[in-house]
């Protein structure tokens, strides 16, 4: 497989499931292996200086990574996919396209690590961040000025499940000349296609739904234009935060069942959300599938289903009760991360979002007692029974 070979164009016209399995893939030319070999090599022989088969050094290119990157491009409908050592490394690469004085308008509800990277690292290099409620396009419009280079959007957001209208943001970015990046981690490419809605770049923590089995940490970007892909490819190689070939293989294997898993995450998410909403000990459930969710209309338009993520608070808001609940669940494991086949629960204020100051968390509605669920693909009755037993013990 030559890294310059463009993946066979299985085409956006083929269905998502077919692309998840075949998109950008070719059988190994030397053996016919159906899955790409895990190329555990750091370097490649040259017959004379500069004479090689398209691969020189594995920071720059590795055939297993090429196979994954081609798959990512096919799934998101972009010109090129780029894989990174983690989701954070992918975000880091995007921010490195900017210069001191450039401004970023970002969602005020974001994964805690993204907020930390923005405010504790890139702010020190002279970038300016403006955090707004992206479910209100007017707030974005007001925050954008002639120095804005990037609009950074999570939708649905982590952990409040706020919904931003990607097509409306794309209109704003067109007028401003900024680049629109969508962190598509919570939705996955099966559920939401940001590039088709006008975004320039999609980012993923592939650690989550793309990998799908909680066994790998990896990040991804998919660019809509060749120009953007080229700039990011430069950063990927120059900074060097690339994933190893085994990790690329694991994500590629996960992707092959993405469509099936996301269907089940969606139906289980719906069942769990409805159960919690009707439970007398639950105060509020954040899930965009409810008709009374403020983002429901936009989510119905831009998402294929409402995914498997939700968050909720208990009545009387006692922090000890939230701690008790997450510690009493048995099928749901108390752990960071999301998007795997197994159900997880978490307490964002002390875990995934602890690096965001409390005043900032409260601005986006992230209360101290909020509980987040990543609903897996187990039998739904067992998930409900687990929640019931834990709520009964409060
Ligand atoms: O963990 P990593 O692969 O580096 O991805 C970072 C990241 C980026 N964007 C979103 C929306 C994320 O949720 C994450 C990682 N999130 C968790 C670990 C979590 O439990 O929320």
Brief digest:
The protein has 394 residues and is α/β, with parallel strands linked by helices. Helix content is 36%, strand content 14%.
Description:
The chain has a seven-stranded mixed sheet with strand order 1-7-6-5-4-2-3, with helices on both faces. It has a five-stranded mixed sheet with strand order 8-9-12-11-10, covered by helices on one side. The protein has two domains: about 240 residues, Type I PLP-dependent aspartate aminotransferase-like (Major domain) (Aspartate Aminotransferase, domain 2), CATH 3.40.640.10; about 130 residues, Aspartate Aminotransferase, domain 1. The longest helix has 20 residues. It is globular and about 75 Å long. Strand 2, helix 4 and strand 3 form a beta-alpha-beta unit. Helices cover about 35% and strands about 15% of the residues. Bound molecules: ligand P1T. The site of ligand P1T has 19 residues, from helix 3 and helix 4. Ligand P1T binds next to helix 3 and helix 4.
């Amino acid at each position: 497989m030559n890294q310059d070979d463009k993946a066979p164009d299985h085409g956006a016209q083929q269905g998502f499931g077919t692309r998840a399995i075949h998109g950008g893939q070719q059988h190994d030319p030397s053996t016919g292996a159906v899955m790409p070999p895990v190329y555990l090599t750091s370097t490649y022989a040259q017959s004379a200086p500069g004479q090689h088969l398209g691969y020189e050094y594995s920071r720059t290119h590795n055939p297993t990574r090429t196979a994954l990157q081609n798959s990512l491009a096919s799934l998101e409908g972009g010109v090129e996919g780029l894989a990174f050592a983690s989701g954070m490394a992918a975000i880091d690469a995007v921010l490195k396209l900017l210069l001191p004085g450039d401004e970023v308008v970002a969602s005020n509800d974001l994964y805690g690590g993204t907020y930390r990277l923005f405010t504790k690292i890139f702010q020190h290099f002279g970038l300016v961040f403006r955090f707004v409620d992206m479910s209100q396009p007017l707030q974005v419009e007001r925050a954008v000025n002639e120095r804005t280079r990037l609009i950074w959007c999570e939708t649905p957001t982590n952990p409040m499940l706020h919904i931003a209208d990607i097509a409306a943001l794309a209109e704003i970015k067109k007028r401003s000349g900024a680049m629109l990046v969508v962190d598509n981690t919570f939705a996955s490419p099966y559920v939401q296609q940001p590039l088709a809605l006008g975004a320039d770049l999609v980012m993923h923590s592939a650690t989550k739904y793309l990998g799908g089995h909680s066994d790998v940490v990896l990040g991804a970007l998919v660019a809509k234009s060749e120009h953007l892909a080229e700039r990011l490819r430069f950063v990927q190689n120059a900074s060097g935060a690339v994933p190893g070939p085994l990790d690329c293989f694991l994500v590629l294997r996960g992707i092959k069942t993405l469509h099936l898993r996301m269907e089940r995450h969606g139906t289980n998410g719906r069942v769990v959300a409805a159960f919690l909403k009707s439970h007398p000990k639950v105060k509020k459930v954040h899930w965009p599938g409810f008709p009374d969710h403020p983002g429901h209309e936009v989510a119905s338009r831009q998402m294929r289903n409402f995914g498997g993520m939700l968050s909720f608070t208990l009545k009387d808001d006692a922090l000890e009760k939230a701690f008790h609940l997450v510690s009493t669940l048995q099928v749901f494991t108390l752990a960071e991360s999301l998007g795997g086949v197994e159900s997880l629960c978490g307490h964002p204020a002390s875990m995934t979002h602890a690096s965001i100051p409390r005043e900032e968390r409260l601005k986006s509605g992230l209360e101290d007692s909020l509980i987040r669920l990543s609903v897996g693909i187990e039998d739904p009755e067992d998930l409900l029974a687990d929640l019931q037993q834990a709520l009964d013990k409060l």
